[in-house]
Amino acid sequence: MGIVLARIDQRLIHGIVVTQWAGHTRAKRLMVVDDAASKDEVQKTAMRMSKPAGTGMSIIDTDTAITNFKAGKYDDHNVLLVVREPETLLKLAAGGVQIPKVNVGIIFDGEGKTTVKKMVSVNDKEVADLKALKEKGIPVTFHFVPGDAEEPLETYIK
């Protein structure tokens, strides 16, 4: 099966992901692809402690993810992929990773960012990256929790 959903969530693995999205997607593996988190043993330990029983977890860098997906390592898994930035998804797609859908969950506010929706603030690069994902034929939606209405990219980013 591979990736069932890719979620952009700057908190990475946290309550909403493990209690709602993992079940909603029937994920058997939670995968964080983040170059910084993959090298942070404290952060990795904290994320692993929160994973649901019976669910695998990978916290890896972008290059390892591309290598593993190309090798078919996750072909028989339902993978919920979580990344911090849209740019990571572009790198994965460029590396041949099949991404069926992108869910924009949480992108924190900060300098040079515009809030487009509750819990989502983007800068020009993030807007360009989200549009580039859509141009690759990957659906991009805003969807904070599974019970909320799913809204297409164009609702908030023209």
UniProtKB/TrEMBL annotation:
Entry keyword set: Cytoplasm, Kinase, Phosphotransferase system, Sugar transport, Transferase, Transport
Main location: cytoplasm
Localization of this protein: Cytoplasm
Oxidoreductase keyword on record: no
Pfam families: PTSIIB_sorb
SUPFAM superfamilies for this protein: PTS IIb component
Name of the protein described by the UniProt record: PTS system mannose-specific IIB component
Classification via Gene3D superfamilies: Phosphotransferase system, sorbose subfamily IIB component
Organism of origin: Paenibacillus forsythiae
